[in-house]
Amino acid sequence: MRPRDGGIAAAVLARVRATGLLPPGSRAVVLLSGGRDSVCLLGMAVELCGSVQAVHVNYGLRGEAAAEDERRCAQLCARLGVELTVERISRPRDAPGNLQAWARDVRYAAGARLAGAQDALLAAGHTATDQAETVLYRLAASPGRRALLGMPARSGRLVRPLLVLTREETATWCTAQGLPWREDASNDSDAFARNRIRHGLMGALRAVDSRAEENILRTAELLRDEAEVLDVVVDTALAGRRAIAIAHLRVLPRALARLVVRRLAEDMTGGLCPRAAARLDDILALGSGALDVGDGARAEVRDGVLRMVPTPPLGHTRQGGESR
């Protein structure tokens, strides 16, 4: 399968190849929804990798439309000679979080299981357009520097090779290859926050400056570079320790002290703790005791030293401590 034109489509493929995220001879599992971006990713993976499989999750949320998505994915994979794994799942009534978050977690879990079993990369079809929308969404919903960093191109097995392409470019490539895709009607619904950003905010920003999307992406790129420097500074402040003297924390620049608090919380929980940094003043005023800082982390100060421990179950108070 080669691009039918020797111009734009070939150049688009070359840019994805240059990322090195789909190296020749590699094994890849592609998250395939049937939409333009995932169809583009699957086609490019077939071009670039040594072995490709796909996984499609049918949530059963859109009735016949969901069944048709599954059928189209099966047809596409048969055409490309790609083995397809389909998972059909219904959302439990007591599932936490919103619908989109639940669907995302299910999709990534299904892909991770297959990729792990095959010792393969797990490829997701996020584009530069998605990246810009993600930065704006996180900026509105989550304070702090990390909100502006966007999605990493690689995180463990997970790779996002299409972050160098816009949504329009993935459509161009699919059209050039004669690869059909499905349009999800829910992507046009303003019931979802990301759609409101896509249809309203991004358009308004482009009206201010046609380079708005490009400028957002460049800002995120610069901040990711700067984040690496800040991580080194935090490493130096902690010197390999999982605790820090309150007296030391107090004399650090406030921005660095907040980063240290967050690092301690995240090292302990193994997840993101964006609210921990905002509790710096409370921690410094704590004296000796305990303070919940959110996201499963609790700050404990004993003998003038700050450590992070798991938040105990509701109604349980650690001996000798206090809960706020």
What fold name goes in the CATH topology slot of the largest domain?
A: Rossmann fold
Tally of alpha and pi helices: 11
How many domains? The number is 2
User: What is the percent of helical residues?
Assistant: 40-55%
Mean pLDDT: 89
CATH architecture of the largest domain: 3-Layer(aba) Sandwich
End-to-end Cα distance: 61 Å
Shape: elongated
- Would you state the CATH class of the largest domain? Alpha Beta
What integer value in Å does the Rg equal? 23 Å
Q: Sheet with the most strands? A: 6 strands, mixed
Beta-strand portion reads 5-15%
What's the name of the CATH homologous superfamily of the largest domain? Answer: HUPs
What structural class do helix, strand and pairing data support?
A: alpha/beta
Low-confidence sequence ranges: 318-324
Instruction: Tell me the strand order in the biggest sheet.
Output: 3-2-1-4-6-5
Number of strands: 10
SSE string, helix = H, strand = E?
Answer: HEHEHEHEHEEHHHEHHHEEE
Characterization of this structure:
This protein has 324 residues and is α/β, with parallel strands linked by helices. It folds into two domains: 8-208, Rossmann fold; 241-310, 2-Layer Sandwich (Uridine Diphospho-n-acetylenolpyruvylglucosamine Reductase, domain 3). It contains eleven helices and ten strands. It has helices at residues 8-18, 36-48, 64-80, 99-118, 128-141, 167-177, 193-208, 212-238, 246-251, 254-269, 280-284, and strands at residues 27-31, 51-58, 83-88, 121-123, 154-155, 158-159, 243-245, 289-294, 297-302, 305-310. The strands form two sheets. Strands 3-2-1-4-6-5 form a six-stranded mixed sheet, sandwiched between helices. A four-stranded antiparallel sheet has the order 7-10-9-8. α3 links the parallel β2 (51-58) and β3. α5 (128-141) packs across α8 (212-238) and α8 (212-238) packs across α10. It is elongated, with a radius of gyration of 23 Å. The N and C termini lie far apart (61 Å). The relative contact order is 0.10.
